[in-house]
Amino acid sequence: MTLSNSEICIVSDSDVPSGSGGINGEGYTYGQLRRQPIIPEVMRRITNATIRKMAEECNARNKEGFVMRKVGGEYCFDGLRVGPKVKTPSRDEILHLMDGQPLTAAAIRSITYNILREALARECGMSLREAADAIGNQLDCAPHEDISGYIFMVPNWAHKWFRHNGFVSRTLTR
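Predicted structure:
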């Protein structure tokens, strides 16, 4: 189905996201994950109250079931967002921040991931190191630079299962 450059992606609720570095080792179906993106095993290991609230908000928002869609040919993860949503810098702003260093995928991610960690650290009253741990270990999320021009956290199972090009690819090819 296409609605003004938006396309709903049809995925069977019985599919089990797997592969891509061992995602979803618990074996949840897509139907289960789209109704509870932050799984119980992950919820149990969250120690920060603000992080827990972010995870609970994501699950509550998706109680009826997240629907993956594509906008302009790219997967749109906004419905699976966990926590803060922060504006990504423009290509020119990234070049300025790099201060003459070569433009690489790793350099771009270093800048944008740090922006997300800083926002999470401020919101939760924690250090940058604790914010990085909260993203990858407590929440089992990945920073995602979305086609909308924002960076936010999304569950790893979705980020790795729905293979996509995004902000970094666009920034490198412009």
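Summary: DSSP finds eight helices and seven strands in the chain.
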